[in-house]
Amino acid sequence: MAKATVVVDAQACIGCGACVADCFPGVMHVNAEGVAECLVPCLECGHCVAVCPSGAVRIEGADMADVEPCDGASLLSQAQMLHAIKARRSIRHFQNRPLSDDVLH
């Protein structure tokens, strides 16, 4: 399967660097012309699309229907995020044996 490609509309890009700052793998940058670009395959996380204030970024080859704009007001504070992480409980009982093919498929 081919990786998706980040495409930036050079006319719409304002060169603010929001997509670069939010790119977890660090594959985006603002070029000498002041336009954001990504020259390598991305992870398709959609962060760059969500944070772009001018709507200049899209991911070609990925279904971006579920990506919502990030307005900042809906983000959790550091304390709220820490509380959410600590409040979530997950207990797993792993066993020291291989899984059968029926379980895996």
UniProtKB/TrEMBL annotation:
Is Hydrolase there in the keyword field?
A: no
Give the keywords, sorted: Iron, Iron-sulfur, Metal-binding
Domain 4Fe-4S ferredoxin-type per the UniProt entry, residue ranges: 4-33, 42-62
* Pfam families found in the cross-reference section: Fer4_10 (PF13237)
InterPro entries in alphabetical order? 4Fe4S_Fe-S-bd, 4Fe4S_Fe_S_CS, Nitroreductase-like
GO terms, molecular function: iron-sulfur cluster binding; metal ion binding; oxidoreductase activity
This protein is called what?
Nitroreductase
- Species of origin reads Slackia equolifaciens
